[in-house]
Amino acid sequence: MKTPLAVLASAVLFLAVPPARCDQASAREALAKEGIAFTQEAFLQKVAEGDAAHVTLFLEAGIDPSVPNSAKRTALWIAVERKQSAALKALLAGGVAPNGKNAPPMEANKTIVFEAVDSGDAGLVRTLVEAGADAKMANEYGVPPLAEAARTGD
Asked: Which of 66, 84, 86, 119 has the most CB atoms lying inside 10 A of its own CB?
């Protein structure tokens, strides 16, 4: 039988471990059980494939979604460029904000909303804008995404 002091020490230790750590460990275990390495490359591959379930697990496991690949594309960029709506929604639902850190402007100051407009997929544009992406920020030529959409007939 535990002494009151031992019970108190156990309770303090339990409270000192943040719940996120437990969730992160569980998510990493789930990825490992499926033979998926907890690496940035594997995460970005799952985004490119549109694998929303595994994208969610990576986020729960604590992956940094703002780390770009060799082409300087973050997870949000990859989801939009590949037209992976499910992965995009999983990223946004997981707390990945469509801001300068997670979706920095690319060549010619092209924004992620501009890329979504160029994709021709109105659903991607809607999803980003509803999540707070700046739909008014113009590229280096002064063209905002809405003007590009009008120009292309979208």
From this structure: 84
